[in-house]
Design brief:
Helices cover 42% and strands 9% of the residues. It is of the alpha/beta class. It folds into 2 domains: 131 residues, no CATH class; 266 residues, no CATH class. The strands form 4 sheets. It has a 5-stranded parallel β-sheet with strand order 9-10-8-11-12. Helix 5 packs parallel to helix 17, helix 5 packs parallel to helix 25 and helix 20 runs parallel beside helix 25. It starts with a helix and ends in a 10-residue tail after the last helix. It holds the Pfam family Sulfotransfer_1. It is an enzyme of class 2 (transferase).
């Protein structure tokens, strides 16, 4: 069925052109239609290219066309124009919604700080930092984010607020009041003939009792159930029987690899566990001191039941069985030989993650945590040894972003997240101390990237308030990557481990690096030079203080 172009046009104004409706049917004839016959016939041309949103219609007609046809043609173009505007509006609306979601527009993105309050004394005509909605919102503009001088003002404000104030650690009685169950389980003295801190605990179950039936690590993670299935089978064989009672050997770690994430702790762990004198927990990173004992499995999932200390101690049962085997061997009994096996634990959150304190401990003045992880570790193990692996905090942050970001990763996206995080950190420092901001859970969760993890000296100084400096070994990933043998010998010496054969040493030092950057992340390339300059400025005062504390200018990271 064919229709003249005039009919199509005349149909637009509805019933104004009855003759078009009459000739629209199947009996339409160009010869009978007064608008189609003779010289009034209209030809239409369509663009041969593929049409996307709007079709291009070129209409050619003679000057003798009726005024009605011309009037309808204009209205047809008007409808096309309106339709185009609607499409453009929808596209712009989509852009606005997407931009607002990613914090790219001049729209407020609320970050409400539970522990902070707004400052009513701010004036609107002061510096760049003063014109932001104080603590209640974060206003990020694309042009502002990419403006290095403007961001430099924020960094200068942060630098002016930095104060390294010595922390007053709590006494033992205060710690007992906070964690009475933990102190009832862990004794204050350990076996004298074991280098590792171990003790015997009476076991009141029978042969049919499953000692791991309530272990939270086994309940919440399928991959650990195989380990506990094995422990159930051999558990009864490793009990010590004395005067009609049964005892199990319990152990804590002799040393902790406490940080930092994305600084090579996995590679250090994988090499160190090859030493014949070293054992590790059944799980590389239990995160018990920082998260699990507070009921945190994943931060985004909120709180679950708290993992008791017994669940944590179960993770060292495999190593405890080997230590017990040495202690109970006939040769050891006759010669009084002690066990040289040491147990390690490698949760990279131990050094810095104190985010849960605000939910469980009474608040202190100025928003600072009254108790930190190291207070409790030191209370039970004053002789514990601590290993810290660090890297250039600028590169650490980018590696952290690439590893944990789930989608839309790019150097530009990283740049914008850095700018927003700096603004949030500055907002906090305007009213609170450096320590209060570093340990603030709400602020840390609001920041798109974990800037605070690279403030190494803040955490180190707090650990040095309870542990002696010779109990802490601080390494650099850059040194470890360039000379693995040298750094591993430093670790062996620090832990006072036994000598190795050439074959054992080669196995430890020549194995390939662990947990390197994924290929898909490497393809994204380095961060933007402007981003690197911004982060260099931000971390500089903290690196300077760290180099002073450690008496080593290598921790300035000037050459990286």
């Amino acid at each position: 069925m064919r229709h003249c172009i005039n009919c199509c046009i005349h149909l637009l104004p509805n019933d104004l052109h009855r003759q078009c409706f009459r000739c629209r049917g199947p009996n339409h004839s160009n010869q009978k239609c007064p608008l189609c016959k003779g010289e009034n016939r209209v030809s239409s041309y369509r663009d041969s290219k593929q049409m996307k949103l709007l079709a291009v219609l070129e209409v050619r007609t003679e000057h003798s066309e009726s005024w009605n046809g011309l009037f309808c043609l204009k209205k047809g173009k008007l409808c096309s124009l309106i339709f185009g505007l609607v499409i453009m509006t929808l596209v712009m609306a989509s852009y606005v919604l997407t931009g607002a979601k990613h914090g790219l527009l001049l729209l407020p993105s609320p970050f409400h700080y539970g522990a902070f309050t707004s400052n009513p004394s701010l004036m609107d005509n002061e510096s760049l930092s003063d014109i932001k909605d104080y603590y209640q919102s974060s206003k990020i503009n694309v042009s502002y984010v990419k403006d290095y001088p403007s961001i430099k003002l924020i960094i200068d404000t942060i630098a002016s607020k930095i104060e390294f104030i010595t922390r007053q650690h709590p006494d033992l009685e205060e710690l007992r009041k906070q964690e009475p169950h933990m102190f009832s389980v862990i004794p204050n003295k350990f076996l004298p003939n074991s280098k590792n801190p171990c003790w015997y605990e009476e076991y009141r179950g029978n042969t049919t009792t499953d000692p791991y039936t309530t272990n939270s690590y086994a309940l919440y993670s399928k991959r650990f159930r195989t380990i506990f299935d094995y422990l159930r089978k051999v558990f009864w064989n490793h009990l010590y029987h004395y005067k009609d009672k049964h005892y199990r050997l319990r152990c804590l770690p002799h040393f902790y690899i406490i940080g930092q994430p994305k600084c090579g702790t996995t590679d250090l762990y994988d090499r160190l566990r090859l030493h014949p004198d070293v054992r590790f927990s059944a799980i590389k990173e239990p995160h018990w001191w920082t998260r699990k004992r507070f009921g945190i499995i994943r931060l985004r999932d909120g709180f679950h039941d708290r993992y008791p200390v017994e669940d944590y101690l179960d993770l060292f049962d495999l190593a405890a069985h080997q230590i017990q085997g040495v202690l109970q061997s006939q040769a050891a009994k006759e010669s009084g030989k002690s066990s040289r096996i040491v147990i390690g634990e490698a949760s990279a959150s131990t050094m810095w993650d104190n985010n849960a304190w605000i939910f469980f401990y009474d608040n202190s003045t100025n928003g600072e945590p009254p108790f930190l992880i190291q207070d409790f570790i030191h209370a039970f193990q004053p002789n514990a040894k601590l290993i810290i692996m660090l890297r250039d905090p600028v590169e650490r942050l980018y590696s952290d972003y690439l590893y944990f970001a789930s989608a839309n990763k790019s150097a530009e996206d990283f740049h914008e997240k850095v700018a927003e995080s700096l603004q949030l950190f500055e907002n906090c420092l305007l009213d609170y101390s450096l320590r209060a901001c570093v340990y603030n859970n709400t602020l840390n969760n609001a920041m798109p990237v974990r800037l605070q993890v690279g403030l190494y000296v803040v955490y180190l100084l707090d650990w040095l308030t309870v542990f002696d400096k010779d109990q802490i070994l601080v390494l650099r990933l850059e040194d470890h990557a360039s000379n693995v043998k040298y750094t591993m010998h430093m670790v062996f010496q620090f832990l006072d481990l036994g000598p190795l054969s050439e074959k054992q040493e080669a196995l430890i030092t020549k194995s390939p690096a662990s947990n390197t950057r994924r290929p898909e992340d490497r393809s994204l390339g380095p961060m933007l030079p402007t981003t690197k300059a911004i982060l260099r400025d931000f971390y500089r005062p903290f690196n300077t203080k760290l180099a002073q504390v450690l008496l080593d200018d290598a921790f300035l990271w000037k050459r990286t």
